[in-house]
């Protein structure tokens, strides 16, 4: 008897995931329009309910995250901010007090009160306080001591360690430089040799690994690229190969994988889509040509139509060829508190994303979104706050990817599902919502 060809464990896992994902897409395609609309809804109330409950009280299974408590604050509060909501005064004050107790006497924030200061939890704490905003939250950060902590983490080879005697990697570089940039304490001492270190982590594939010699990975690629942009050395990277690597991480499921030959995962919606947008905007701003691609230029995105905006899309009646760049107040109320912008207003400030933005939104909304709120990695996985934060962050990046700059709002056709799905825009280098970022920058500029 002829032997069946054997498949590897990885091939089998990939096959099972594709089966689940395509099963969900086929189910969606077979539904009537009303059900489809419902399935694509972000369901803000359910999201907020899941998030608010988590911020107030977590069950015993979360004890394993005891060294990550500022991260839980950030994942939850940033998700709430992306949804355009805020917490009440009591929750806000409790969060500020709690993070104050995580702040070490020699600077930086630990994973909980009395724990060793660590760069990752310091980044989470600072981003949480920036997300809360206001005098009390922002002034609770001891900038002088944070500056000492960052200097202590700096290594002579240019990189940073995660904590005293800790490991050195691209995450540490990014978290240190993101904190320093937001708090307005970045200087030559912190940036010296940093570009050399990140450069040594770019691999033959084009992406960036965690440390020299490690495999390229989406999480580290985001960290490395964002760091190079913040320190103004991004042109030292091989940008063409980085671009090539990152766009090819979007697979047949339409979500992103973290590294070559690995499975799709909702959290990479942010870690991989943000570098795509950062690179595309950098290429556009510097008049660089993307080799091997015709769609990076100022597309009028005709093929965008085919992804089905439905009958309530106000774009359908518009003249897409109008390239007027005037702010002609050409909007209407979507009925969800958002104002829908028409193509004619913003066409010159729009671009065809270098990844399939609507496909990515479809993966997040149909495969990662859970019926009772929260988001997950992939079908059959449970929801969690990390994936909720990065699925929502990535969804926001995908929705806003059609704009050449942060000031151009998305059109209805950029958003999969109703315009009520529109999320707040994030600052791509720090992953805090734009308004909160602007407030913090102003505050720490005055504090200097
Ligand atoms: C700001 C900050 C601290 C950023 C962290 C960035 C980040 C997500 C790094 C990823 C770390 C990593 C090697 C995951 C691989 O896990 P895996 O092998 O379970 O997943 P995979 O199969 O998808 O690669
Ligand atoms: Zn994940």
UniProtKB/TrEMBL annotation:
Residues 296-340 are annotated as: Disordered. Residues 311-332 have a biased composition (Acidic residues). Binds 1 zinc ion per subunit. Residues 43-431 form the Prenyltransferase alpha-alpha toroid domain. It catalyses: L-cysteinyl-[protein] + (2E,6E)-farnesyl diphosphate = S-(2E,6E)-farnesyl-L-cysteinyl-[protein] + diphosphate. Its cofactor is Zn(2+). One of its GO terms (cellular component) is protein farnesyltransferase complex. GO terms for molecular function: protein farnesyltransferase activity; zinc ion binding. It is an enzyme of class 2 (transferase). One of its GO terms (biological process) is prenylation. Keywords: Metal-binding, Prenyltransferase, Repeat, Transferase, Zinc. The keyword Cell inner membrane does not apply. InterPro entries: FTB, PGGT1B-like, Prenyltrans, Terpenoid_cyclase/PrenylTrfase. Heterodimer of FTA and FTB. Catalyzes the transfer of a farnesyl moiety from farnesyl diphosphate to a cysteine at the fourth position from the C-terminus of several proteins. The beta subunit is responsible for peptide-binding. Belongs to the protein prenyltransferase subunit beta family. This is Protein farnesyltransferase subunit beta. It comes from Eutrema salsugineum.
């Amino acid at each position: 008897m002829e032997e069946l060809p054997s498949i590897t464990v990885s091939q089998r896992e990939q096959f099972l995931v594709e089966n689940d994902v395509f099963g969900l897409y086929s189910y969606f395609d077979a539904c009537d329009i009303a059900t489809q609309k419902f399935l694509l809804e972000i369901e803000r109330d359910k999201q907020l309910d899941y998030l608010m409950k988590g911020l107030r009280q977590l069950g015993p299974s979360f004890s394993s995250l005891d060294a990550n408590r500022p991260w839980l604050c950030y994942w939850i509060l940033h998700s709430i901010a992306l949804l355009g909501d805020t917490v009440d005064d009591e929750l806000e004050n409790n969060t500020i007090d709690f993070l104050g107790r995580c702040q070490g006497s020699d600077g930086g924030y630990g994973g909980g009160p009395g724990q060793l200061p660590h760069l990752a939890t310091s980044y989470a704490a600072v981003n949480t306080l920036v997300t809360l905003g206001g005098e009390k939250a922002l002034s609770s950060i001891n900038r002088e001591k944070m500056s000492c902590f960052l200097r202590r983490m700096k290594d002579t080879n240019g990189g940073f360690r995660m904590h005293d005697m800790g490991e050195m990697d691209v995450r540490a570089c990014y978290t240190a430089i993101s904190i320093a940039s937001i708090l307005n304490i970045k200087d030559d001492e912190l940036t010296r040799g940093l570009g050399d270190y990140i450069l040594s982590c770019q691999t033959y594939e084009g992406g960036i690994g965690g440390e020299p010699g490690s495999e390229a990975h989406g999480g580290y690629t985001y960290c490395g690229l964002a760091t190079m942009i913040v320190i103004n050395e991004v042109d030292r990277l091989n940008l063409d190969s980085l671009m090539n690597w990152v766009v090819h991480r979007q697979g047949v499921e339409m979500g992103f994988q973290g590294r070559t030959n690995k499975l799709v995962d909702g959290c990479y919606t942010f870690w991989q889509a943000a570098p795509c947008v950062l690179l595309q905007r950098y290429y556009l701003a510097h008049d660089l040509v993307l080799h091997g691609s015709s769609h990076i230029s100022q597309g009028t995105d005709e093929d965008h139509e085919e992804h089905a905006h439905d009958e309530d899309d106000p774009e359908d009646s518009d003249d897409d060829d109008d390239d007027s760049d005037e702010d002609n107040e050409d909007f209407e109320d979507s009925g969800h508190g958002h104002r829908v912008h028409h193509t004619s207003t913003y066409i010159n400030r729009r671009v065809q994303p270098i990844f399939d933005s609507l496909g990515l939104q479809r993966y997040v909304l149909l495969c990662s979104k859970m019926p009772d709120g929260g988001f997950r990695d992939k079908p059959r996985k449970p929801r969690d706050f990390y994936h909720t934060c990065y699925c929502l962050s990535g969804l926001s990046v995908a929705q806003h990817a059609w704009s050449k700059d942060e000031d151009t709002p998305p059109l209805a056709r950029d958003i999969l599902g109703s315009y009520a799905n529109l999320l707040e825009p994030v600052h791509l280098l720090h992953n805090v919502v734009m308004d909160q970022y602007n407030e913090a920058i102003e505050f720490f500029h005055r504090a200097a």
